[in-house]
Design brief:
The complex is a heterodimer of chains A (176) and B (312). With 176 residues, chain A is mainly alpha-helical. Chain A has one domain: Arp2/3 complex 21 kDa subunit ARPC3 (Orthogonal Bundle), CATH 1.10.1760. Helix content of chain A is 73%, strand content 0%. Chain A has 7 helices and no strands. Chain A is globular. Chain B is of the alpha+beta class and 312 residues long. Chain B has 2 domains: 73 residues, no CATH class; 147 residues, Rod shape-determining protein MreC, domain 1 (Thrombin, subunit H), CATH 2.40.10.340. In chain B, the strands form 2 sheets. In chain B, strands 1-2-5-4-3-12 form a 6-stranded antiparallel barrel. Classes of the chains: A mainly alpha (176), B alpha+beta (312).
Chain lengths: 176, 312
């Protein structure tokens, strides 16, 4: 390790850069995916919080390649694009990220259902926090229905995205 | 760039914690400051929306295609029922058409007699909805038309069924639509046929509610709600929906447009007729009156042209 060649192979360097950039990019694309009007197909508006899946997954698996400013950036862009209170989801995602990173030992190397359960708990906290903050921001008690639907859909879609991220992580580790 | 080196772990752990705390503080500060909704924030939103719009447009194409597939299979399933229904509706509408033609001729005649200032014709831009609201606390959409196409803040947005909202922000190539259901949406409306005025206020539920109704209003469930044009921002007479009684006692409105199936939309470039010159009664009366007496009953359209010219 300490005797690394002075100029590491370009493939190795590319792998390292990819390991730093691609998880964030994946999270960013997930965030954008929330705005794709899927509701048109089903006739119900859900817009799952795909960004939260990315934040949770990388916070458990590899927080070192998904630093807090990445989480902040994803939350901030989500706020900017959704025209909601600026900083709301950035704050919620960061809190979730902080909590999950501190508890990640509980979930590493355990079964997938535990990993999923952890996400369920995280989304409940995130949804509740978001609802409380938004209610305070708008100065009235908002209807909790939409956020409940959103979080339920997000939890239901978690395994799919977790598998995709796993593929990405494995590819990156092989390359790096 | 050597963040992946193993020996650096503890230091990075500490720096990670510090940056986490810093970022949390920053987000909380933004949330507090964001109440002010400054120019910088608005600009940032517009720039981000404009940048994201092409990506979202790309992504929304397959979604629209999928919807068409779903819809067409639906239609195949119900083609017989639908055909029956349309036949009945057609028979009913033919009777209405006769009545409408007669009324149109009559109204044109009266308008000419009373020298009514006809509303200027309204231009429009057609676009597509490319982005959903994305979050649970806001009801806005992103459309792929912007200031380059002449879209401006405040303009009404309709789809084939009725009013859906209005433009609240525009970039060069994309704009944001505030839906009627959003918490911040307030639209002056008229309840037909009693002509009671009220304000339609969104509250993030599916059904916006009517506010500022008179204490005793002769209205009932099922009445039509249209825009009143008060305030001069939205054109009057745009259909919105019908009255429904909600469980919480409020009178709410079931909109004609289906919020979750919005695709093609039309942005109306309405300008409140501030500077229309007074029309010369005989000049208007003569051509319209002669046409009414002639064979074609659609006489109100030519009279709109001079008014439109006067308005611009």
């Amino acid at each position: 390790m300490s005797f690394e060649p002075i100029s590491p192979s370009s493939a190795g360097r590319a792998g390292k850069i990819a390991l730093l950039v691609l998880p964030f990019l994946a999270g960013f694309l997930c965030m954008l995916l929330s705005f794709v009007p899927f509701s048109r197909i089903f006739g119900v508006e859900v817009a799952p919080a795909f960004g939260l899946i990315a934040v949770y997954y990388w916070a458990v698996q590899r927080p070192d390649v998904f630093p807090p400013y990445g989480v902040f950036a994803i939350g901030l862009f989500y706020d900017l694009l959704s025209a909601g209170p600026l900083g709301l989801w950035a704050l919620v995602y960061l809190i979730i990220y902080g909590v999950v990173v501190s508890q990640r030992q509980l979930m590493i190397g355990r079964t997938f259902s535990l990993f999923w359960l952890g996400f369920l708990v995280s989304s409940v906290i995130a949804g509740f926090l978001g609802w409380v903050l938004a209610s305070l921001y708008f100065g009235q008690v908002l209807s909790p229905g939409p956020v409940l639907v959103q979080m339920a859909a997000t939890v239901a879609l978690f395994p799919l995205f977790a598998k995709l991220f796993e593929q990405l992580l494995q590819r990156l580790l092989v390359q790096g | 760039m050597d963040q992946t080196n193993r020996p650096a772990l503890p230091i990075r752990d500490v720096s990670g914690r510090v940056s986490l705390i810093f970022m949390v503080t920053l987000a909380a500060a933004l949330l507090l400051l964001g109440r002010a909704e400054t120019y910088v924030v608005d600009r940032a939103r517009q720039v981000v929306t404009d940048l994201a719009a092409p990506l979202l447009e790309l992504a929304s194409r397959p979604v629209s295609a999928a919807r068409r597939v779903v819809e067409s299979t639906d239609q195949y399933a119900y083609v017989f029922d639908e055909n029956e229904r349309l036949r009945e509706e057609n028979a009913r509408l033919l009777a209405w058409k006769e009545a409408a033609l007669k009324l149109e001729a009559k109204v044109a005649r009266f308008e000419a007699l009373l020298n009514v200032q006809v509303d200027p014709s309204i231009g429009y831009v057609t676009g597509r909805v490319v982005g959903d609201s994305g979050g649970p606390f806001v009801e806005t959409l992103i459309a792929n038309v912007g200031s380059n196409q002449g879209v401006e803040s405040g303009q009404a947005v309709i789809d084939s069924d009725g009013l859906i909202g209005r433009i609240v922000a525009t970039g060069p190539e994309a704009s944001r639509i505030l839906l009627l259901t959003d918490l911040n949406s307030r639209v002056p409306v008229v309840v037909e046929p009693s002509q009671i005025r009220a304000v339609l206020a969104g509250d993030n539920s599916f059904w916006p509610r009517l506010e500022f109704l008179p204490a005793i209003a002769p209205i009932s469930v099922g009445d039509r709600v249209v825009t009143s044009g008060d305030g001069g921002l939205l054109p009057p007479g745009l259909p919105i929906g019908t009255l429904v009684e909600a469980d919480d006692g409020f009178l709410r409105v079931q909109t004609f447009s289906d919020r979750s199936r919005l695709d093609m939309i039309r942005v109306l470039q309405y300008e409140f007729p501030r500077e229309i010159d007074a029309q010369d009664a005989p000049a208007v009366l003569q051509p319209v009156a002669s046409e009414v007496q002639g064979e074609t009953p659609s006489a109100s359209t030519p009279s709109a042209a001079p008014a439109a010219e006067g308005g611009t």
